[in-house]
Specification:
alpha+beta
Amino acid sequence: MKVRGFRQANAWLHNWTGLLLGWLLYAIFLTGTLCFFQNEITLWMKPEQHGSHPDAGSAERAWATLQRLAPTAEQWRIQLPGERNTAIQVNWNEPGQEKRHALTLDAASGEPLEVRETLGGQFFYRFHFQLFGIDYMWGRWIVCIATMLMLVAIVSGVIVHKKIFQEFFTFRPGKSQRAWLDAHNATAVLALPFHLMITYSGLLLFMYMLMPWGMQSVYQDDTRRFFSELFPRDPVEANPAPMQNGVPLTDLRPLLDEAERHWPRGVGSIEVRRPGTELAVIELRELGGDSLLDQGAGERLRFDGTTGEPLDIPPQADGGTAKAVYNVLTGLHLLRFAGVEMRWFFFLSGLLGTAMIATGLVLWVGKRLPKRRKSGTTPFGHRLVEVLNVGTVAGLPVAIAAYFWANRLLPLGLAQRIDWEIRCLFIAWALCLVHPLLRSYRRAWIEQLALASLLYAGLPLLNLSLPDSHLLTTLAHGQWLVAGMDLTLLALAALFGLAAWKLTRLPSSAVQNPTRKAPQEAPI
């Protein structure tokens, strides 16, 4: 048996680790990329919130609403509007009840809004790290294994391409297969630091699963204590009995003014413990934060709930260097701290990673075309890869578009509406996986890309039926959270349409008749 050299061995490793779970990695990377704007996607999928316009009095209106609706609650939480949401989210829990009550309030009036049921961008977040339809722990293990293979593929790819940075500046659009290789190299190198960071930090998030021995040696089976010490919370004071109810809360406005003097970004959330009692405590949290050492968490201010006097903040335990490194890397992965510019940078980098995986899958087929021409047959494995390529690379965007269409078209009062939105996504994805079985490789690509283009282009048009959600209104009112989503959908429609049009102009002889030598080795 011929012994492979170091680079040849890594080339074999790169090809097969990239192929075996390439379609799953594509889905994980694409849904993870969408997670950078999961709040914006959720807002877009709740058009009832689009008419909510926050102002300086929004917090006090929410305060008054909770005093009216939940005067005996044990705790209030108010999430104020920010750069990623226009409405107010409130929740509370009543004494003796485990289930929390939640409402969405109009920021201009403080009144509850009837918002359609949807997971919104949360679905992509959950699918990204634990898949869907299987036990969540099995899903997380599968994602961990795929992520480890992704890291192997990245490192082996760097080793294989000894002139990787020179190849980055090489693009040969006239040579079909070489163009796909150049595109694969370029998308890999352009965002290589991002690919390494996002893959390694993803593994780090699940270190307690992948390397549990240290935790088990100290905490045995008490994982709850491990997480409580890793992410400590303020101690909850015992409630003395009896406790006087109906005690009026202090005026909120002076507390907000004090917080805004400390925080130029303003207040992000308000929490009230034991409202309506003499032991009430009000905590204000800053909107955003500056340091990754605590995953971008904002500062806090605490006040006596009846007098408004400032209270001390309980000290946070110092986790040391190890926790600081963990917080920095996982904070970068989750990106909860970042502004819109950083989110767009990560989003585009994520798209490059998704394109890197897609071009690698297409390239695998293209490299084997000469052998298929020579033999005049298409092996079952090659045909399976073709079907999975089309059904995943083009089919998943079609399925995501179907998810958005279902959000708009399903009746608002439909039972299990959240489940039906998700079912529509998976039904559409299943159809996209069946479709390439009935069509040629080339025609399947063209038809699914064209369908994706039509579906994404139609969504902003569908919004014309919603008075507060269509582009003319959102642009006129400067609602870039909603308008940005529609403009992105139109950009995706143009991208998919361009790809479909380009494929119609490529030579088809290499695909339609593999026994006949074509002038170019077209992988599609």
